[in-house]
Design a protein that fits this description.
nine-stranded antiparallel β-sheet; Methanolan_biosynth_EpsI; 11 strands; two-stranded parallel ribbon; signal; globular; EpsI_type_B_pred; Methanolan biosynthesis EpsI domain-containing protein
Length: 229
């Protein structure tokens, strides 16, 4: 009986063969971003929802110049905000959208870019969150830089598919590629400063649920993936 690992390996092999075959006849030319349009991140994400309001008193932490240069290469739009509730609990939201999720411009995941900025990743696990009547697959990390402890929850949407692993991202790219489509992509990252990892992730889950409840169906499908994906 074939194990799940072997099934995945076989699927990857088959998709790689299909992708190679497609390359013989030409690379994908239909850009999803041209067909459905690029989102306006500033307008898509509300500045106030549920218990949360944009915290204008907190400056947005910018990445190092070399990381910023990479982000500019990969993404068309980047949105960074800090939100706060009445209890003074703060959440940092980072959204990055790229119209071309091909090999050279695939989403740059936090477990890669955080260590590049000096952080140590001390925990890394897959999780699902109940969002909008469905289970949203996410990846949860714990990062540390000196005295700064920053729990992170993130996921990537490639086309309409939610992915949380590098291989999942590659598979999604291939699924669209063999149909001649260059998928777009969005990386959603939610984090806060909190030494207690479980407490930090619980607050992030609450924020994500509140955000999903305030989005229209079209925006939600781009941020949280298509239902059934």
């Amino acid at each position: 009986m074939m194990t799940s690992v072997r099934w995945r390996a076989l699927l990857v092999a088959l998709l790689m063969v299909a992708s190679a075959g497609a390359a013989v006849f030409g690379r994908p030319t239909k850009h999803m971003a041209d067909q459905i349009g690029m989102p306006n991140l500033e307008a898509m994400f509300p500045k106030a929802f549920g218990e949360w309001r944009v915290d204008t008193s907190m400056p947005v932490v910018l990445p190092s110049p070399d990381v910023q240069a990479l982000l500019d290469k990969i993404y068309n739009q980047v949105l960074s905000r800090s939100y706060v509730n009445a209890k003074g609990e703060r959440i940092m939201l980072s959204v990055a959208y790229g119209g071309d999720q091909s090999d050279g411009t695939s989403a740059h995941r936090p477990e890669v870019c955080y260590p590049a900025q000096g952080f140590a990743i001390t925990a890394n696990k897959l999780q699902t969150l109940p969002v909008g009547g469905r289970q949203l697959p996410v990846r949860q990390l714990m990062s540390k830089l000196g005295p700064r402890n920053e729990p992170i929850t993130y996921w990537v949407v490639v086309g309409g598919d939610v992915v949380t692993t590098g291989i999942g991202q590659k598979l999604a790219q291939m699924r669209y590629g063999v149909r001649g489509i260059v998928a777009d992509g969005m990386l959603m990252r939610v984090s806060n400063i909190e030494a207690d990892m479980a407490k930090g992730h619980q607050l992030q889950a609450r924020f994500i649920t509140d955000l999903a409840g305030q989005m229209d169906a079209a925006s939600a499908s781009r941020v949280f993936g298509k239902v059934g994906s």
